[in-house]
Amino acid sequence: RLDYSGIALLIMGSFVPWLYYSFYCSPQPRLIYLSIVCVLGISAIIVAQWDRFATPKHRQTRAGVFLGLGLSGVVPTMHFTIAEGFVKATTVGQMGWFFLMAVMYITGAGLYAARIPERFFPGKFDIW
After folding, report:
1. Half-sphere exposure of residue 25, counting CA atoms within 13 Å on the CB side?
2. Cα–Cα–Cα angle for 100, 72, 83, rounded to 5 degrees
C-alpha cells in the first residue's frame, strides 16, 4: 500500500512546482490549482491506505483515482496556454515535458488497470 502512496506523492510533487512557478504572478489561480492537486493527492493516499479499496474488486477504482490525479493538470495546462500563448507555454512553461509526464502517468495507470505483465505471466512477478 505504501507504493500507491508513493505514487500519489510523486504525482503531487511533480505538479506542485510547475503550478507554483507557472502561475507565480497569478496568486488566485495558483492557490486554486495547488489546492485541487493537493486534495486529489491526499484523497489518493487515503484510498490507497483504506482496507476497503485494497481488494481486487476495487482495482479499477484505484486506477481511476490515480488517473484523475494525473489528469488534474489538464485544466491548469490549458489555462496557462490560453493566458500566455502557445509559444510561451512550450518554452517558458515547459509544456513538452509536462505532456511527456502526463503520457507516462496515463500509460502507467493503464498498465496497472490491465494487469500487465501479471496478466500474461501469472505469479512470475510476485515478490512475497
Report:
1. 3
2. 80
**How far is residue 65 from each of residues 13, 40, 75, 79, 90, measured CA to CA in Å?**
16, 8, 17, 23, 28
Place of cell 490549458: 78
Whether pTM exceeds 0.85? no
Residues of the chain with pLDDT under 70: 128
The C-alpha cell that represents 52 in the structure block = 476497503
DSSP 22-89: HTTT-HHHHHHHHHHHHHHHHHHHHHHH-GGGGSGGGHHHHHHHHHHHHHTTHHHHHHHHHHH-HHHH
